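Sharing a chain and its predicted structure for anyone who wants a worked example. Both blocks are below, sequence first, tokens second.
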Amino acid sequence: MKRIGITGHRIIPPEGYPDIRAAIRAVLGRHEGSLEAFSSLAIGADQLFADIALECGATLTAVIPSDDYEDAFAPGELVSYRDYRRRASREVRLGFRHSTDEAYYAAGAYIADNCDRLLAVWDGGPSRGLGGTADIVHYARDLGKPVTVIWRDGMSRP
């Protein structure tokens, strides 16, 4: 079974979604056989990846950083998070009591540790807090994991 994980920005400019969606679909579509997708199901890149992975027939593993992770979602975002969580074949709970930068870093590291390839919806900039996309990309590269960076040229993140 091929295992692919995601790290990426929560806020993606709307004009970037078509290109990012197509790039994720292209990567997932290249793999024959069974596929396991790892995501923390945050808004933005995580949920976009989960959606495409499920469409491609992958099994979804939800990596939940903390007991109070749902508190990090706005009410409107909570519905989609719970839907993806319900559709996951497996759930990994990391056991942090609270959603902290350390919990987010641990979730990203868990995904990097357990995947064969990491997709990064990343503008190439520094993280805006411990456990951000840049931190996880560097962590995965330090492990020697292949990392595929997906971003639309010329697009800026808010």
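Comments welcome. The first strand starts at residue 2 and ends at 8.
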